[in-house]
Amino acid sequence: MTFNRDYINVGIVGAGTVGGGTIRVLAENADVIATRALPVKIKWLAEKDLQRGQAILDELGLKDTKLTGNWRDLVEDPDNDIVVELIGGTGLAFDVIAAALSAGKSACTANKDLMATRGGELLAIAAEHHADLFFEAAVAGGIPIITSLKENLTANRFNEVMGIVNGTTNFILTKMSESGADFASTLKEAQDLGYAEADPTADVEGIDAARKMAILASICFNSRVTLDQVYHEGITHITNWDTAYAHDLGYEIKMVGLCRLDDGMIDVRVHPLLLPKSHPLASVRDSYNAIYVDCDALEKAMFYGRGAGALPTGSAVAGDVVTAARNIVNGCQGRVGCTCRLHIPVRDINDTVSQYFVRLEVLDQVGVFASLADQLAAAGVSMNSLLQKRALADGRTDIVIITHPTRHSDLLQALDSIAQLPCVVAVGDPIRVHNG
Amino acid sequence: MTFNRDYINVGIVGAGTVGGGTIRVLAENADVIATRALPVKIKWLAEKDLQRGQAILDELGLKDTKLTGNWRDLVEDPDNDIVVELIGGTGLAFDVIAAALSAGKSACTANKDLMATRGGELLAIAAEHHADLFFEAAVAGGIPIITSLKENLTANRFNEVMGIVNGTTNFILTKMSESGADFASTLKEAQDLGYAEADPTADVEGIDAARKMAILASICFNSRVTLDQVYHEGITHITNWDTAYAHDLGYEIKMVGLCRLDDGMIDVRVHPLLLPKSHPLASVRDSYNAIYVDCDALEKAMFYGRGAGALPTGSAVAGDVVTAARNIVNGCQGRVGCTCRLHIPVRDINDTVSQYFVRLEVLDQVGVFASLADQLAAAGVSMNSLLQKRALADGRTDIVIITHPTRHSDLLQALDSIAQLPCVVAVGDPIRVHNG
Questions:
Q1: Which of A198, B8, B65, B136 could form a disulfide with B316 if both were Cys (CB 3.0 to 4.6 A apart)?
Q2: Is the interface score ipTM higher than 0.90?
Q3: Of these residues, B43, B105, B112, B212, which one is catalytic?
Q4: Which CATH architecture does the domain made up of A145-306 adopt?
Q5: Burial class of B274 by CB neighbour count within 10 A (0 to 12, 13 to 18, 19+)
Q6: Pairs of CB atoms within 8 A across A/B
Q7: Is B212 a catalytic residue?
C-alpha cells in the first residue's frame, strides 16, 4: 500500500496534561516539523470533556481539528494515520491502542503503566498488523533513552543501567539532602509545589519507577520484564539522620532504578541507593531525571533532562509521531518493533547481592561491638566499615555499618538477630550502597 | 527491489583505531545484534596495509571476511550491502562514500572532517540514489546526539546547543583546573598519556570541535553550515592565572562549541568559555564529551559520554550499520536524509555578543580604574564587575574585569585602546563568559 498524501494526519486521545502538551508542541512547532520531515496535521482530538478539548483547540487556533467524545472516530477514519493514546491507565488505553493497531494505524503512547504490564501484548498486535507502536515518553519523559538503547546502542552488551526515573522522589531527596529536613515535611512541600500528588503512593513507594525499569530492562536484555517482576522499595523510611550520615561518608541518597544481567538472570529493582558524590547520577538535582548506562562498547554514558511535564513529555510524544510519520510515508511500519526475543528469568530479590548501609541505635556500653560482630558473622555478613555514632539521650548511641557485598536474605536474617540483642534499641531500615 | 537475504553484508574500509574498534564491536557482539535486529556479517575489509588487516581478522577469528587492498572491491560486489568508510581525510574518503552511494549501497562514516566540509555533496548523492548515509560517530563519538537531534527532538525549536566535543582540550583544561599547572606542561602530560597528538593543532586550536559544530548547527537549524563558517579560538592562551581567577569567581573554563539562532542568523563558534560551576557542562571532566541542549519543548537536556576511542566510536558506527541494515531489509533507505532545507546566513564573529572576562596587568597607582573605565565607556563596553587583583613585583597588579554583553568588535576596540594606556603593562586575551 503506497502512501499518497504529502502530509500525515494524527488523532490525539486525551487532552490532559500530556495530551495538551503534545497538541501544543505539534501545533506551535508545525513549521519545524514540516521542514525536517513532512507536515503533521492534528485531524482529531478525542476528549470526554468536550469543553476542555474545545478550550485547547481554541487557544491554539486549531480550527480544522475535529473534536469528538468518542475515540473510535479516530480509529474508524481511514484518513487518520496515527492514534496517540494519552488518557493513561491500563483498561481503556489498551483498547484504544489495540483498536488503532488492528486497523493498521500507527500508535504512540506515554503510558508507562500500560507498557510495563501489557506492553508485550500490544507489541504483538502491532507486529501482526505491520504497524508501529512507539512509547519513548513512557520512560524519563523527554529524554530519548528508549530510542538510544534500541537503536544507537544496539551493538552494545549492557552491563548495568541505572536511572533516576522519578522526578517526585528525586525532588524530595534533593530537598532533604540540602535542607536536612525530614521526609514528611519535605513531602508536604513537594505537594504544595505540585511536584507530588495528593496521593503520593505510586511515586514514593517506587511503583512509578518500577514501571519504567520493567520497560528498560526488557529493552536492554531482550526479554519481557513486567511490573510485577520488579522489586520496589520506597523512600518513606529515609530519615534526615540517614541523609546526614551518608553525607559524612561521601554519599548522596538517591532513588534509583537499576537493571543488570547477573549470572544469566535479570536483576531489576528500584530502591534508595547511596551513591558516591563523584558519581554522575549523584549530582542530578530536583525533579530532573537521568539514565546512566554502562555497556561494553560505549562504556559509560548518561542521558539527562526533564522526566515529566507537559512540554518535555509532549516533545517525546511528538518525536514518536514524526518517527511514525516517516515510517508511514516510507512504507516501513514495524521497522523496529519488539526486541524481546529471549526468555531470561528475573532474579528473586532475596538472592540479589548489594552492599548495605545500616543504622543502629544501641546502648553505649562495653561489649556492644563484639555482640554485633558475632551476629553479623553468624549470618555470613562481613563489615566493610563500622563508622560513626552520635550520642543520644539515656545512654544510647548511633552506629552506622556499611557491609561488604551481601545476599539480601542473609542481611535480613542478620538484622533480625541483631534486633533481638539486649543492647540494641532500634534497627534502621537498611539502604543499599553503590560503589563502582 | 525487495531484499531477499536474512542477513546483511557489510564492508569496512580502514582498519585503524576506529576501523578496528568497529570490526571488534560488530564481531564480538554479533549475537546481540542478530537478536535485536538481524545478523550482520563483515564480508569485506579493505586495508592498504594487508598485514594490519589480516592481524585483526585473525585476532577476531573472522575467517569468512575477505581482505583486500582495493576498496573498489566492496563497491563492486553486488552482495555487499553497506560500505563503512573509516580511513579519514576528505579526498579518498569522499570517493569511497560517493562510489558506494552511487552504487545504491548504504554508507556509514565517522569522518567529521569530511562531513563538515563536503557533507552536503554526499547527502545529495545519497538522496539521488535513494541510499542512506549515516555519520553518528562524527560528533561526540559514541554519544547518540545526531539521531537524538534529527529524530527524537525533531519537534523542538533549538534555542542553543553547547557542547564539550573535544576530549583532548577537556582533558587539558580539567588538569589545569585541578592541578593549577600551566598549558604547556599539561599539554606535554596529555601527549605522554596519549590524550593529545604529537601535532596537537587541530585539537588545541579548536578546529576539531569546529567540524563537529558545523555538523550540529546544520542539523539544529536545517541549513548547511561548513567548517569555514565556524569561528574557532584555541586554548593555548589560557594561563593558570585565568583558571585561578575563574575559580575565585565561581566558574570553570571549558572549551565549548555553541550554536544558536540569533535574530535570523546562525551564531556558531568554538572557544574557551567561563561556565558557572553549577552548569551541568562545568562538571564534565577529563576526556569525556557532553552536549547540552536548550530547546523549547524538552527544555534542557544533556548527553554525556565517551567522545573518542576505538570501542565508543565503534559503538556509534556499529549502531549506524544496524540502522542502515534495518532500512535495507524494510526497503526504506533514505528514510531520514539531509534535513538542510533552509538557507540561513551565519553571523560574522565581530557581530556576536558575549560577556567577556579580561585580565589586565596594570601599574598599581592612583587613577588607573578611572582611565580603564573611560576607555571602556568610549568603546561602548560596560562593566559587570571589576573584581580582584594580586600584587605583582615592581608596583604592578592584576585586575580582572567581567563585561556586560558586548559586541565582539567593540570589545577588541576597547582592549586596543586600553593597551595603549601608560598605566597598562599587559592585556590578557579575553575569554567569553556564559551566564544563563
A1: B136
A2: yes
A3: B212
A4: 2-Layer Sandwich (3.30)
A5: buried
A6: 208
A7: yes
